[in-house]
Amino acid sequence: MTTQWKLVCKKSDLIEGAGVAAMVNNQQVAIFYLPEATSDTKVFAISNWDPFGKANVLSRGLVAHLQGQWTVASPLYKQHFVLSTGECLEEDVKIPHWDMKLEGDNVFILES
Description:
The chain has strands at 4-10, 19-24, 27-33, 43-47, 49-50, 55-56, 62-66, 69-73, 80-82, 97-98, 100-103, 106-111. β5 (49-50) and β6 form a beta hairpin. 0% of the residues lie in helices and 48% in strands. Strands 2-3-4-10 form a 4-stranded antiparallel sheet, with no helix packed on it. The chain has no helices and 12 strands. It has one domain (4-111): Rieske Iron-sulfur Protein (3-layer Sandwich), CATH 2.102.10. It is mostly beta strands.
């Protein structure tokens, strides 16, 4: 299996401190741009699918820094998902996540 970086959008398509949804390989992905993140990573991607609310809504959730990690709270039932790992803080559930990179104005997702 090979992995490659795929251009998914432009930085200008993103909203600082919030999420946007994108279709990547026929799957909805929630992309978050956090310029205030202290890590090298400023762009994060998780599945847009909320496994509790059974809807594609995570891109519309509220971003927060909890327990030393950047998270998004589902707008439906408020579970928090860690943006770097897809792990849920309240339940033993993990959703898909992807590595992202920002090069100039281009935003890339790592496909596998």
